[in-house]
Specification:
Helix 1 crosses helix 4 and helix 8 runs antiparallel to helix 10. The chain has 2 domains: about 50 residues, Orthogonal Bundle (Arc Repressor Mutant, subunit A); about 140 residues, Tetracycline Repressor, domain 2 (Orthogonal Bundle). The protein has 10 helices and no strands. It has about 200 residues and is mostly helical. The termini are far apart. About 70% of the residues lie in helices and about 0% in strands. The relative contact order is 0.11.
Length: about 200
């Protein structure tokens, strides 16, 4: 009986996540209420709250699933990237912009929710994804190993800086409608400036 109950809970959770993803894309994060998500999923509002603490928690799950697909592909590609550490880092973030700007409203909602003071503690903060952090760190470590970058750099600080710049640039997508090409070009210049300060 317990396994049947667990299966039903998982099925409800799946319907909620799928409905939320559609609703966030259709009407935007702010307009998508828990009640509207529940209605679209065909479940009660209470059923949503058995799996999620708040709307930001639902959004976080939607994003983690989307990013899981991206990171699985990147982890397959990363060992085959060639070039300097700066080139590899540029490629990594260019792929992120290309992926996220396909659903820019969804990612902008995720960025905005990250700065909500009332977000539940179980919602991972923006930039905390260990897979992304690991990929950026691998670029830095390879640069140090090849003698391109100084060995004494604070890698955690540089990872934070690069992810922070990446997220900050989305303000241009929100305010000016900046496209992938513009954000990639800007990030390429920013990465170049950061890496100039890290050069061996």
């Amino acid at each position: 009986m317990l396994s049947l109950r667990a299966a039903r809970k998982d099925a409800t959770r799946r319907r909620v996540v799928d409905a939320a993803r559609e609703l966030f894309e259709d009407v935007g994060y702010e307009a998508a209420t828990i009640r509207a998500i529940a209605r679209r999923a065909g479940v009660s509002v209470g059923s949503v709250f058995t799996s999620f603490t708040c709307k930001a928690h639902v959004l976080s799950q939607v994003m983690q699933e989307r990013l899981g697909e991206l990171y699985a592909e990147l982890e397959r590609l990363l060992p085959h990237l060639r070039g300097s550490a700066v080139d590899r880092c540029r490629s990594l973030f260019a792929v992120h912009y290309a992926f996220e700007l396909r659903r820019s409203r969804l990612f902008l909602a995720y960025v905005a929710a990250a700065f909500d003071w009332e977000t539940a503690p179980n919602v991972p903060p923006l930039g905390a994804n260990p897979r992304l952090r690991g990929m950026v760190q691998a670029c830095l470590e390879a640069g140090v190993a090849r003698g391109e970058l100084r060995g004494d750099i604070d890698q955690e600080l540089v990872v934070d800086l690069l992810i922070g710049v990446y997220a900050w640039n989305y303000r241009l997508a929100a305010s000016d409608g900046a496209d992938e090409k513009r954000l990639v070009s800007l990030m390429d210049r920013q990465i170049g400036t950061i890496f100039d300060g890290l050069a061996a």
